[in-house]
């Protein structure tokens, strides 16, 4: 930690781990403040430095503070004694008050409005290190969360999305490497960049850090100017990447929206033609039916794209009414049976529920069942059975859809609920990988749960639950 804040913004402050390290500070004369950690056992060398550098104010920090120790420190010319670890705000306030020409707004980032709303997590078992890191990147626009206990950090990262993690490696309960692994597996923060800040300088640890997906590996002590630049440039890159993705998403949504009207018009026109066509004209009837089913499939793709966009921009509002899940499932099977019949598949519906009327958005839950059934049909072999079951317990209604999978499935079946993840290459079909993603978002919007299971004989089952009682 020695001289860790030697930088343009805070170059007038030195932090020393022990009095014996004072002789290693070459530019002590330029410091306005020097804070030294001590046990008060040998303060005699301090007097020489206080006399030699009259323009530098010396403070001590210690876990062992008593009235006698404070009197002893004052006798050597020490101006202040702080309990260790100390709050960096005390240092900042002192410097701003005594040296406003140097520290007025020096601890903020100029023209940093783009930082507004960004969240950074710092995890280090040394409170002073945490304070120093937080001080180094201080900006009124950034929200910084700090954790001494890495187990508490784990709980936070599962509940809140962050824009950057600054991790120490050597920690008592969970190492920084283990914490990084858990971050990469978390729901909210698996794509959040990580920087390791550590005293470990060997190549093996550096390689492990980068293999875990870190975007920087910073050794202590470090130049804070460089550190700040690294942090802010990583945040800039992240913001730029997010802006590019959002632009792409907006474009896709716009195209999907423009496609919606002609696809719906095509479906209506084909249905009218089928009503008027001569029943004896079997050839043309089959062609029109094929075109109609293709148009309906296109309609489902367009709807999924639009729903994905709406959910991610928080533009979806549910219209809940009392609905029968039994009737909803029966209607869904009827509407999608054309796909199953084309593959000579059989959809079996089993209902063991007594109370199947609950408050849901009929159209949205129908979309969920349609997407799950489509997924089962596309990924099942010909002449196979697809089973959909409706059951209940005291609190929830449960729907499960089970089928034999003809394609290899990921080790973690729930990965299929991520957007743009599908097994379309194996099944040789057109699939954007949005059906299960949209289904999950709809179920979660209903305060329900959805997950996948691999069962015996290469079967896969998707299960979702919906609460019987309305949860606002």
Identify the notable features of this structure and list them briefly.
472 residues, alpha/beta, Rossmann fold, 4 domains, 5-stranded parallel beta sheet, 5-stranded mixed beta sheet, 16 strands, elongated, disordered N terminus
What is this structure, in a nutshell?
This protein has 14 helices and 16 strands.
Write up what this structure looks like.
The chain has about 475 residues and is an alpha/beta fold. It folds into four domains: about 15-105, Rossmann fold (3-Layer(aba) Sandwich), CATH 3.40.50; about 115-220, Response regulator (Rossmann fold, 3-Layer(aba) Sandwich); about 240-310; about 320-465, Histidine kinase-like ATPase, C-terminal domain (Heat Shock Protein 90, 2-Layer Sandwich), CATH 3.30.565. It is about 45% helix and about 20% strand. The chain contains 14 helices and 16 strands. The strands form four sheets. Strands 6-5-7-8-9 form a five-stranded parallel β-sheet, sandwiched between helices. Strand 15 and strand 16 form a beta hairpin. Helix 11 (about 325-340) runs parallel beside helix 12 (about 360-380). Residues about 1-10, about 105-110 and about 420-430 have low confidence and may be disordered.
């Amino acid at each position: 930690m020695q001289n860790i804040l030697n930088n343009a913004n805070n170059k007038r402050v030195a932090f020393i781990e022990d009095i014996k390290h004072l002789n290693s500070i070459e530019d002590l004369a330029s410091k306005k403040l020097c804070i030294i950690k001590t046990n008060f056992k040998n303060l005699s060398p301090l007097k020489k430095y206080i006399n030699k550098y009259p323009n530098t104010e010396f403070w001590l920090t210690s876990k062992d503070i008593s009235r006698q120790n404070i009197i002893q420190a004052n006798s050597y010319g020490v101006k202040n004694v702080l309990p260790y670890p100390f709050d960096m705000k005390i240092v900042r306030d002192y410097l701003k008050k005594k040296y406003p020409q140097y520290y007025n707004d020096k601890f903020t980032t100029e023209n940093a409005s783009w930082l507004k709303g960004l969240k950074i997590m710092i995890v280090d078992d040394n409170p002073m290190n945490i304070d120093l890191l937080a001080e180094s990147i201080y900006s009124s626009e950034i929200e910084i969360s700090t954790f001494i206990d890495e187990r508490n950090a784990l709980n936070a990262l599962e509940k809140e999305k962050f824009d950057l993690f600054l991790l120490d490696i050597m920690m008592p309960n969970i190492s920084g490497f283990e914490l990084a692994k858990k971050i990469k597996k978390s729901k909210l923060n698996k794509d959040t960049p990580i920087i390791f800040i550590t005293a470990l300088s060997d190549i093996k640890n550096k390689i492990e850090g980068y293999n875990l997906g870190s975007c920087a590996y910073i050794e202590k002590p470090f130049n804070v100017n460089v550190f700040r630049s690294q942090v802010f440039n990583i945040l800039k890159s992240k913001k730029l990447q997010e802006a590019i993705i959002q632009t792409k998403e907006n474009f896709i949504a716009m195209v999907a929206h423009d496609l919606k009207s002609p696809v719906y018009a095509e479906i209506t026109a084909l249905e009218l033609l089928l009503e008027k066509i001569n029943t004896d004209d079997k050839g043309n009837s089959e062609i029109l039916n094929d075109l109609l089913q293709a148009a309906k499939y296109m309609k489902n793709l367009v709807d999924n794209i639009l729903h994905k966009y709406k959910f991610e921009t928080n533009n979806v509002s549910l219209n809940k009414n009392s609905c029968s899940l039994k009737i909803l499932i029966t209607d869904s099977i009827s509407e999608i049976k054309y796909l199953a019949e084309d593959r000579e598949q059989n959809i079996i519906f089993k209902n063991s529920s007594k109370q199947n009327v609950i408050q849901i958005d009929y159209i949205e839950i129908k979309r969920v069942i349609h997407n799950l059934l489509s997924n089962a049909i596309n990924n099942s072999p010909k002449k196979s059975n697809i089973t959909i079951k409706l059951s209940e317990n005291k609190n929830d209604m449960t729907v499960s859809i089970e089928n034999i999978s003809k394609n290899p499935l990921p080790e973690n079946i729930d990965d299929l609920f991520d957007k743009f993840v599908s097994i379309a290459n194996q099944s040789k079909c057109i699939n954007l990988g949005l059906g299960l993603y949209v289904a999950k978002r709809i179920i979660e919007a209903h305060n329900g749960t959805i997950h996948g299971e691999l069962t015996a004989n290469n079967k896969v089952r998707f299960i979702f639950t919906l609460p019987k009682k309305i949860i606002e």
